[in-house]
Design brief:
Elements (H helix, E strand, L loop, with lengths): L1 E3 L2 H13 L5 E5 L5 H13 L3 E5 L19 H11 L3 E3 L3 H4 L25 H16 L3 E5 L3 H13 L5 E5 L19 H6 L2 H14 L5 H13 L4 E10 L14 E9 L2 E8 L1
Helix pairs in contact: 5-6, 8-9
This protein binds adenosine monophosphate.
């Protein structure tokens, strides 16, 4: 497995692969790899060859008061995990390599960045869309693997690739969870033992909603209220939002639409901002 830090070198390698008729699979990450990321790499191996894992803590997707500085950076351990999972190339550029002096271009989506995390993280999805476009153009993948854990991100990037005619297929992998239901996240490292014990209430709320939906409740307000009650029983959790939107367009739903409903939440638990979701 090679570790490449330079954009020029990565892009030259990607062009060689393309000329040789190979089907590159890309897994974009910010590192601090856990079993969720490893599952993405394993899926990428089924879908393409070679597999490129990018590791880049992207400064432009963090707000001024967010955790860019504190975000865990564990490149050596990440490379070991990537190698063990069968990655061919780790692409780990520096911020200056991706955004050299004078950098100006941005990619922005008109509507899908507005709901859910949009108001809580101004500029976040512009940063995500821009860096992922750049990663697509640097690594030239035919397929890219993302987690449904970041559902708004995945839906928005799929839209972006279609809108911009980028010849890449986006594949989503279901959220990988700890035994108690907590979605795996690099940010779980911020939790104290007490907060870690409280955090599974997020998924319990989503599960309670899903159970009520299975029993026939379809009214969004009732379903959301029920999930919030379950989450808010845990005093260490401060919910930012818990919303029900369509998967296709991320528009608010008044009643559940089977096969097209995303219930997503974000919450503060101590220093950590955690997100989770279910699809019905
Ligand atoms: P991150 O490093 O957190 O930016 O995540 C990189 C990719 O891994 C994104 O596509 C995430 O959606 C995905 N991912 C993160 N956590 C999980 C998880 N618990 N299960 C599945 N995919 C995940």
């Amino acid at each position: 497995m090679d570790v490449i830090h330079s954009v020029r070198e990565m892009q030259a390698r990607a062009l060689e692969w393309l000329r040789a008729g190979r089907r590159t699979a890309l897994v974009p990450t910010m590192g601090a790899l856990h079993r969720g990321h490893v599952t993405l790499i394993e899926r990428a191996k089924q879908l393409g060859d070679p597999v490129v894992l990018s590791i880049f803590v992207n400064p432009t997707q963090f707000g001024p008061n967010e955790d860019f500085g504190a975000y865990p950076r564990t490149l050596e351990a990440d490379c070991e995990a990537a190698r063990a999972a069968g990655t061919d190339v780790v692409f780990a550029p520096s911020p200056a390599e991706i955004y050299p002096a004078g950098y100006q271009a941005q990619v922005e989506l008109e509507g899908m960045a507005a709901p859910l995390c949009g108001p809580w993280r101004p500029g976040h999805f512009r940063g995500v869309a821009t860096v992922v476009t750049k990663l697509f153009l640097i690594t030239l993948p035919r397929v890219a693997v993302f987690g449904w854990k970041d559902a708004q991100q995945f839906i928005l990037l799929r839209r972006m690739a279609a809108d911009l005619n980028i010849p890449v297929e986006l594949v989503g992998v279901e959220t990988i969870r700890e035994a108690d239901g907590l979605a795996m996240s690099s940010r779980n490292k911020y939790l104290t033992p007490e907060q870690r014990a409280a955090a599974p209430a997020l998924y319990r709320g989503l599960k309670a909603l899903a159970t009520a939906a299975e029993s026939g409740e379809r009214d969004a307000r009732s379903l959301i209220a029920l999930a919030k009650r379950e989450v808010e029983r845990e005093p260490l959790i401060r919910l930012e939002y818990l919303d029900m939107v369509s998967i296709g367009r991320l528009e608010p739903l008044l009643t559940l639409e089977r096969g097209n409903t995303l219930i997503a939440l974000a919450a503060r638990v101590g220093q950590a901002r955690l997100i989770d979701n279910v699809r019905l």
